[in-house]
Amino acid sequence: MLGIFLFAYKEYFRIAGGILAIIFGLFIAGFIRLDFLMREKRVIINKGPVGYAGAFLVGIGLAAGWTPCIGPTLGTIGAFAMSQASATYGLKLLFVYSLGFAIPFILSAFAINAFFSFTKRLYKYMRLIMIASGLILIVFGIMLLSDKVRYFSSLSQGFGISF
Known about the structure:
This protein is mainly alpha-helical. It contains seven helices and no strands.
């Protein structure tokens, strides 16, 4: 029933998703400020997580802390998947997104000391990275609004990626 509803209104979801992607892109790039996404809460823990329950709670905290960073991109992927009215396509998009998100963490776990020194050097370019990320989301939002995302899909097939 939900699938029928989403399919019937997929054009509206595509347009809303494009607008949302543009707004999130402007936010990530720092061109607009959305204070409700900038709220911060901290809990100071004197010693590391204790057992599985402690690790689980730290994971929840990490997830909540990263929501402003991950949410706009993940929301855009979700909006695009909804506009295609295909759960399989959405699952493939989320799988690729998850790989792109998880691989750096897995690699950093193997080389944690090198990772910390690298991230310190990378931090001075963080503003440029945020602007570039925001601009990519804006371009994607415009492509979503103008229904030109299929063009991007055809380009990705040249790299052996097909959805």
